[in-house]
Amino acid sequence: MPAHESITRRHRLDRVLQPFRRRRGLIVAPNLPSADRDRIAKEVEQLLAQPETTAQRVAAARLVAAYRGLDADGHGHFLDLLASRFGTDPAAIDRAAASLQRASTPTARARAERDLRQAVVPRYAALLHVITGLADGVGFLVDLRADVLARAHDDATLGSLEDELTGHLATLFDVGLLDLRQITWDSPASVLDRLMETEAVHEIHGWEDLRHRLAGDQRCYGFFHPALPNEPIVFVEVALTHGLADNLPHLLEREDAVDDADTAIFYSITSAQPGLAGVHLGNELIKQVVDELRRTDDDLKHFATLSPLPGYRSWLRSEVKANALLSTELEAFGPELDAIVDGDDSWVLDPALAERLRPGVLSTAARYLMTTRDGRARDSVANFHLSNGASLERLNWLANPAHYGIEQSLGVMVNYLYDRSKIAANAGSYLTEGSIKTSNHVKNLVKTPKR
Amino acid sequence: MPAHESITRRHRLDRVLQPFRRRRGLIVAPNLPSADRDRIAKEVEQLLAQPETTAQRVAAARLVAAYRGLDADGHGHFLDLLASRFGTDPAAIDRAAASLQRASTPTARARAERDLRQAVVPRYAALLHVITGLADGVGFLVDLRADVLARAHDDATLGSLEDELTGHLATLFDVGLLDLRQITWDSPASVLDRLMETEAVHEIHGWEDLRHRLAGDQRCYGFFHPALPNEPIVFVEVALTHGLADNLPHLLEREDAVDDADTAIFYSITSAQPGLAGVHLGNELIKQVVDELRRTDDDLKHFATLSPLPGYRSWLRSEVKANALLSTELEAFGPELDAIVDGDDSWVLDPALAERLRPGVLSTAARYLMTTRDGRARDSVANFHLSNGASLERLNWLANPAHYGIEQSLGVMVNYLYDRSKIAANAGSYLTEGSIKTSNHVKNLVKTPKR
Amino acid sequence: MPAHESITRRHRLDRVLQPFRRRRGLIVAPNLPSADRDRIAKEVEQLLAQPETTAQRVAAARLVAAYRGLDADGHGHFLDLLASRFGTDPAAIDRAAASLQRASTPTARARAERDLRQAVVPRYAALLHVITGLADGVGFLVDLRADVLARAHDDATLGSLEDELTGHLATLFDVGLLDLRQITWDSPASVLDRLMETEAVHEIHGWEDLRHRLAGDQRCYGFFHPALPNEPIVFVEVALTHGLADNLPHLLEREDAVDDADTAIFYSITSAQPGLAGVHLGNELIKQVVDELRRTDDDLKHFATLSPLPGYRSWLRSEVKANALLSTELEAFGPELDAIVDGDDSWVLDPALAERLRPGVLSTAARYLMTTRDGRARDSVANFHLSNGASLERLNWLANPAHYGIEQSLGVMVNYLYDRSKIAANAGSYLTEGSIKTSNHVKNLVKTPKR
Amino acid sequence: MPAHESITRRHRLDRVLQPFRRRRGLIVAPNLPSADRDRIAKEVEQLLAQPETTAQRVAAARLVAAYRGLDADGHGHFLDLLASRFGTDPAAIDRAAASLQRASTPTARARAERDLRQAVVPRYAALLHVITGLADGVGFLVDLRADVLARAHDDATLGSLEDELTGHLATLFDVGLLDLRQITWDSPASVLDRLMETEAVHEIHGWEDLRHRLAGDQRCYGFFHPALPNEPIVFVEVALTHGLADNLPHLLEREDAVDDADTAIFYSITSAQPGLAGVHLGNELIKQVVDELRRTDDDLKHFATLSPLPGYRSWLRSEVKANALLSTELEAFGPELDAIVDGDDSWVLDPALAERLRPGVLSTAARYLMTTRDGRARDSVANFHLSNGASLERLNWLANPAHYGIEQSLGVMVNYLYDRSKIAANAGSYLTEGSIKTSNHVKNLVKTPKR
After folding, report:
1. Which of A435, B428, D11, D312 has its CA 20 to 30 Å from the CA of residue A450?
2. How confident is the model at residue C92 (pLDDT cuts 50, 70, 90)?
3. Chain B residues touching C188 at Cβ < 8 A
4. Size of interface A-B (CB pairs under 8 A)
5. pTM of the model
6. Rounded Cα distance, A136 and A134, in Å
7. How does DSSP assign B31-62, residue by residue?
8. What average pLDDT does the segment A350-358 reach?
9. CA C158/CA C148 separation, integer angstroms
10. Contact A309/A414 with Cβ under 8 angstroms?
11. Closest chain D residue to B297 measured between Cα atoms?
12. Closest CA relative to residue D299, chosen from D334, D257, D343, D262
């Protein structure tokens, strides 16, 4: 209703449409020579000391623009600078820890803990809060975390910065602040553009292909955040079918709507923001989409996926190398096993050969999916859906004969089943005991040697 | 645009309109006897151990409903239970502090700091995160903080809970997530109802009075949060005038629009959520409203307030008791001073007497406003506007002759001036040096004894 | 979505919020003396001759403002002026009619008909089109039609103006351009204000009463038009109940939601725009609301009304005067009949007396409702619902004991039933044959003399 | 605001997203054999006799679906059927005309005119009203009018149907019901798709080209109608420049925003709905966009076009053939004239030759633009802008060297100037006297023979 519309959004929009014609401020050489590091350090220092919020924000905007102008090396130097010069004060922490140890009454202990908690907050936390209030500040923090994640494994000193950003963004991107929206051909072109750019599972080949993905009995839903109005955070693609889908190309290429759809197949789920990796939203998205589909389409009875097994082939190769295949599996493969191990994929074009490979592939794939390590399924996609409370329902032979489908999964795809009444129990037993709920169909595929 | 609307909001709305017909779950006696405390503790324990998010959320919703059903004593017991049984693990903190002291390399130190930081996070933090994701969870956390604030000064053990809620809500209510909206007669009735209920400065007497407050050359703006769609967080009332306003009743009762308005008078600013006390949004609201008014009305040149001096009269009384009035001030008052000190306000009805009081009142009020303690103005309203970068522009005699205006401020009101080009400098010198930018008009009111 | 919002609506809003500070233009004495009539005639003449649309619109806005400034007499003079000086050109019509009669070929006939059709369009039609394009033009035309309707029965020359406005507004307010919206406590205050002002059936006593009408298991829906964003065109109030409601005060005063609602009772339907009288939208509103309720609440199985019999009492009085009551009806009434005929309503307060009146009232009310004149039910409310395809389901004794309920309907109220599967058939047989679908319950109330 | 959102739009959207899975009803052979014609005639007959609106609408929806399933011949037969069997009743018209001639009193005359006006309304008018209320009825009527327009010049009997549709759609698409919206990369993809498909002046080559057209200092605005939410009715493309633009490729290919833009150049205006041809909305769109740009960008001082001369080259050819060029023009051309007359456009690639052509082209183009016929500029684009009140400001040599620019306009483009203070006067003198406001620059280009 325009009668009670958001002025903030209107101006956010105006700003997007009419970007500043001139941008001045801090000009930084892309590789950030040391003189500039000192200058940036001084800028950050002044910003943190600035008592007036508007002035502080102007300084923060300058800093953000400076960072945007840097190359990858410059980003690294900037992050190091933040982590090393604007972290915690070791002396203050030591003092607080000492006080804590001396505290003799509950009240003194409580006070000492509060002080200690203050002391372990790095100084750059205040900078992150100022940036959050900038017009495009939330988006910047998401990108900043992506940069930190790309470096953190090499650099222990970035760990605290990563923790700080993770905690801050986990709160900002709490599911209570996210909007579920259906994405259709009537969605903003900028949203669709971003969707094409980021779709990670099954590439979209241009606008016509995208239109087809959104038409007929296809659905797409995404989570959006108020501070990033036209960028999906995570999105899922769904096809309505009659019965469980067993073939991806058939799903993607079908022309007509289905008369008797009773099943929603989730065939692609994409986190569109690398900077939010590990902020688990996919789980919640699937649940909300199941609820929404149930509400809007009374005929839908089953909710399942058509998923790849991204780690299967490399696991198979290592099993072969380690002579770890079961005798029954070797038997099932027969001489065709070599073709797979060698990386020769021409069998895909030879139906007879492909048919001969089938028993070996399906039996090892089934065993692979049911294998856990440290209480988690080895396969990352399996782990995701099992954690959500889905069960392992069916394997489908040659369900994705595309290059990328063969390369990772030897063309096999899995249906994970989301049965609402069993989700909590499935997730519970998987997450606490590593127990994987599996259909008889999949269990029977495993060629356990008879005794 | 319906073409890309929020499904989340639609269902949030549906829920509001069609509340659950039946509510079951935890039923708690209002005063929470100990058996129930144990049961609640057990519920919280299970919730924190529950691995599946939907089940966890259902449990959290039950807990929220239970809390809503308690009386004030029950709330206190619940908060104590949280703070005492679900806080930090002292042993873990001690271990982390000891590790830190032993750390001999930078990397070990960095790791130990991260561990310590984990250890000082109380267990109830996880509960607050789960509640945030509930449909009305953010509103609940705001109310919960109000309950904590009402108790915290008596109860040191609630300090950490207050810190945790403050930090969490300060992030959730970051200005980057707030919407500025104009509030008009076309706003939702629920918004207007809330506005009438919470207006703290100049009470609104029913719907017709409210309609008058929003009509003609009056404006009202508020900040809204995506998780509380129809509750203003903080709002400000503005009157467009020609020149600085010097009389509140004239402002509120005028019938017609002003032909030559050049000034926006901010005459009331209200924080509508007690649970967000201290999350400073009023400052930001004034700045954004100044920008919006500048954009939409080219003729506006001046931005100022018409504000009370809430602490003036009690300060005056204590000055009199302490014999601390200056001789020149005593002289200015003459014998009428007694009338004020005695608390007899009948002088308001006696124009001649009121006129005789004027010099004494204005001179002491001017000195009062310019007095600082610990680098801050004694008057809370003065401190608010001076911190924002406003300056002390003018005192107005008998500007608010209503009972509450006489009781606190002897009828005086102040104009604080927001001059955009000077805001940063004013705020800086006030906040760092306690220096108050004052007009000659106000300076000249102070009756400094001549030497 | 702000990303694709309507600029038009934003400015329409801005205009509402910030009305022009000064209005100049044509100043007309309220009673429109003849000098002014000439001036207005000249203005209209110039407007119709003006080739440039913006200039034309400015002139039309001046005319609208002038009309708004007139009193009722002035309005009458203005309407006469339009109808008499800016109607059709009789000579042109006569020429076209003559051509038509001379036309000897189909093509000539077709051309002559087109010419005739042009000739019968009055000149003021062009003025109405210009006004439609003004910012508040559509609202003005609605008000103008109300003024014409109030005069047309006295004034044959206004008939063509009425036809023109009716045709124009029937197209502008086609159901294809209307928005169905639920009206709740979150609707704009201006909408709710209008609702209170116009509710025609059961008066709303202030904002608290209104809030109660919209809360719990009450619903309200209205049609809105894009050119009148915050004015309901027609609205309906609905209560969800278990079974058919038989008592209005119980319905309006109940406090709690109903656990097992299976029925939606339409208890009030109001046309909020007198200028749209006869543009039949109530019928369509009921049908769309039935569909919406069915969609949003699976448990609702029955859709019915609780309606007054506005013409019943005066019909009864005339039947008595004409000695037209059946002997069985007289018998049913007994001596109490006089109380009713005399207009003494004290029986309402005497339960025993009321109970004795019951058989006579219900039997005559049932016969009254089933009586047709020229193929239509005598009772206007009955005619409305029967035309929509509802059936006559049940009479309820003392269902509305309020003053206005006794005065018109002797407290009786009717349930008309909307059974979706029978609507088309019911409406068809009623509208074509005057046949009223009636339940056995109602049929049995009629005291047909036995032979 | 979801709190007061349109249910109608939500369901309109749902319908778009989830089209009926099954469609049954009237199946018509594409070429509409006579048996079907009788059946359709019978359907229309029943529809017009059906008293119940929902049943009527269902029948109308079936008819619309049937029409959509027909090929072009079938459409023709359907239109003929409507026009011939469901037009007016000649006998009734004759009777009404006769009554009119007999009417001897003003009242009788008034009544007879009203009757005549009823009689000249064809029966299919009622069908058009029913269709308007269908979910996609307005769009259908627009398409239907396009079909009628494509046939009407050959078929006199369709003239009345054209009149009826024109009058009906002119009311429905009154500017008072249209929404002005900016079209950006954040607009619905369906809107942008339609824009690419219909852009009539300067073709858009795919999505990347479109994105470029909407970026930086480019703007696009369109009118939208509530019943066709994602279809622009008419749209205009604007480039912000410093000074008048003189070259189209430069305008379309520039990469950067302009620092000192003071001029808005309207370089393309497209009616996106053939069925609304002649419902003049482009004029109004330009005026509203000028207002909006003025509001949002204070620096813009000038509003002009960069327009083709679509009729220039063919006019020049006919002037040459008729030996009507002035001697001074022949002189200006010199021997190069032949190149143009022959249709050999290779001169575009030969800068020296092009330069020699310049004087002849510009002088004849200037004279061509200033030439009127029946009080209107010969050039259709000139007539459009001059009718709107623009003036003829400047000719630009080789401003559009693209094939289509050479073919029609010999590469010349015109700047028409919209000077707000002169628009009403310019339009007035042009439309009433055929007088074209022309700059001295253009006047001086004309090579009037000296005497």
Report:
1. A435
2. very high
3. 185-189
4. 208
5. 0.90
6. 6
7. T--HHHHHHHHHHHHHHHH---HHHHHHHHHH
8. 90
9. 7
10. yes
11. D295
12. D262
pLDDT in tens, B176-229: 899 999 999 999 999 999 999 998 778 899 999 999 899 889 999 999 999 998
Indicate the burial class of D98 (C-beta count within 10 angstroms; 0-12, 13-18, 19 or more).
Answer: middle
Is 60 exceeded by the pLDDT of residue C3? no
Supply φ then ψ for residue D383, to 5 degrees.
-60, -40
Confidence bin at A259 (pLDDT 50/70/90): confident
**Partners of residue D236 on adjacent β-strands:** D221, D269
Based on the residue annotation, tell me whether D307 is a catalytic residue of this protein: yes
SS3 A391: strand
DSSP string, C97-127: HHHHHH--SHHHHHHHHHHHHHHTS-THHHH
CA geometry: angle D242, D439, D323, nearest 5 deg: 120
pLDDT tens digits, D139-152: 999 999 999 999 87
Task: Write down which chains contact chain C via at least 3 CB pairs under 8 A.
Answer: A, B, D
Predicted local distance difference test score (pLDDT) of residue C118? 92
Q: What angle do CA D167, D169, D174 make, to 5 degrees?
A: 100
C190 in catalytic set: no
| Residue A22 banded pLDDT, cuts 50, 70, 90 | very low
Report the C-alpha gap between C264 and C302 in whole angstroms.
6
User: What pLDDT score was predicted for residue A346?
Assistant: 85
Strand ranges in D296-349 using DSSP code E only, listed in sequence order: 302-305
**Integer CA distances (angstroms), D174 to B426, C173, D125, D168, D388, in order:** 54, 12, 19, 10, 18
- Determine phi and psi for B240, rounding to 5 degrees: -90, 130
Where residue A14 falls among pLDDT bands split at 50, 70, 90?
Answer: very low
- Read off the DSSP letter of residue B350: -
ipTM of the complex: 0.88
User: Residue B298: its chain D contacts at CB < 8 A?
Assistant: none
Cα C347 from Cα C333, distance rounded (Å): 13
8 A C-beta contact, residue B161 and residue B148: yes
In this predicted structure, what is the pLDDT of residue A4? Answer: 65
With tokens 């704009």, the residue in question is: C188
Which one from C307, C363, C391, C409 is the annotated catalytic residue? C307
Q: What are phi and psi of A290, to 5 degrees?
A: -60, -45
From the list A3, A10, A188, the residue facing C229 with the nearest CB is A3
Q: What residues in chain B have their Cβ under 8 A from chain C's Cβ atoms? A: 1, 3-5, 13-14, 16-19, 21-22, 182, 184-190, 192-193, 207, 211, 230, 257-259, 296-297
The torsion angles phi and psi of B426, rounded to 5 degrees, stand at -60, -50
Is residue B251 within 8 Å of B210, Cβ to Cβ? Answer: no
D4 — pLDDT class (breaks 50, 70, 90): low
Q: At B195, list the tokens.
A: 């506005």
Best residue of A12, A184, A231 to probe chain D, by most D CBs closer than 10 Å = A184
Tens-place pLDDT, residues A126-179: 999 999 999 889 999 999 999 999 987 767 778 899 999 999 999 999 988 999
CB pairs under 8 A between A and D: 70
Q: Which helix (H) or strand (E) holds C209?
A: helix C206-214
Which chain B residue has the Cα nearest residue A232? B4
Report H helices in D181-308: 189-198, 206-214, 248-253, 282-296
Beta-carbon separation of B296 and C16 below 8 A: no
d(CA C309, CA C191): 29
pLDDT in tens, C143-185: 999 999 998 776 777 889 999 999 999 999 998 899 999 999 9
Question: Residues with Cβ < 8 Å from B449, sequence gap 6 or more?
Answer: B326, B327, B328
Strand D302-305 vs strand D263-271: parallel, antiparallel, or unpaired? parallel
Backbone angles phi, psi at D358, to 5 degrees: -50, -50
Dig out the tokens for C302 from the structure.
Answer: 């029955």
